Amino acid sequence: MKITKTLLGLCTTAKLRNYNKFRAFFISFIVVFYFTQLSYSQIPEEFIGTWYLEYFSGPQGEIYVNTLDVTQGPSFTVTEDLQITGNSFCNDFSGEYIYVDLSPLAIPNTFQPINIIRGTIDCGSNEIYETQFYVPFVNEQVADIEVLQEDFLVLQYHNPALYQVYRNEPVLSIDENELSKIQIYPNPVKDLLQIENKSTNQITSLKLFDVLGRLVMKVNEVYDQIDVSHVDSGLLFLEIETETARISKKIIKE
After folding, report:
1. Distance CA 102, CA 110 (A)
2. Which residues lie closer than 8 Å to 132 by C-beta, 6 or more apart?
3. What is the rounded distance in angstroms from the CA atom of residue 228 to the CA atom of residue 208?
4. Domain membership of residue 10 as a residue range
5. Which whole-number Å values give the CA distances from 116 to 75, 135, 206, in the listed order?
6. pTM above 0.85, yes or no
7. Residue 110: its pLDDT value, please?
8. pLDDT at residue number 78
């Protein structure tokens, strides 16, 4: 009886040791794989280039560049060698950035501006927007790249109230006043998302994307509402295309 108990104890101990060894190996493998992906991540070609700010979060809600009395809107250019240059409402800036490819983990890649040097010219009546625009740059905040397509770039900083939406063409050439007449509600939404179009342009297409930039839904016929009841909860982006322009709106699905 004692021999049997001893043998069982030895077997249990051996199994436990083997389990711990396997667990340690598995964790080490995951860590090595993860950091290998980070070390050898490639900057996607579509990310390289110049991006023009369309709208961003501010103390009183979303601020659309075309609704402001400005001759130029903020933009920045990113290069393959991790350099960043750009302009705000009245100043230039330059620095570097860190890009981390987290796609192997099925989560958004990240962007972080660092070592930013900026001008200090006072922007007058637009100084409040100037200051708000620079908050994530001077604070070197990390942002999830939540949508990265050919047209739009969304930077959701690791602060729920702070985000910036860019596009690959100067936004001052777009009739933003007309696009601003397209409203969506309720937001957050549970089932039916209503789309109210008071602009002179007809909506020609609606596309819904998740935070990884994957197409969730496309609508080509009825444009006054979308049933999102079957869509997973979380952050989404609705791309609205009209006869003359496109706009991306942020949506929370409950």
Report:
1. 7
2. 56, 57, 58, 59, 63
3. 9
4. 1-40
5. 14, 11, 37
6. no
7. 92
8. 93
* Number of compact structural domains in the chain: 3
Whether 167 and 180 share a structural domain: no
For the chain, give the longest Cα–Cα distance: 91
Distance between start and end Cα atoms, the chain = 61
- Give the pLDDT score at 134: 94
**Tokens 């100067």 sit at which residue?**
170
Contact 160, 252 (CB under 8 A): no
Average pLDDT over residues 205-210: 87
Same domain, 76 and 22: no
Alpha-carbon distances of 224 from 37, 95, 163, 198, 208, rounded to whole Å? 43, 44, 27, 11, 14
What is the rounded distance in angstroms from the CA atom of residue 35 to the CA atom of residue 237?
Answer: 30
* 202 confidence band (pLDDT: 50, 70, 90): confident
Q: Phi, psi at residue 136, to the nearest 5°?
A: -70, -25
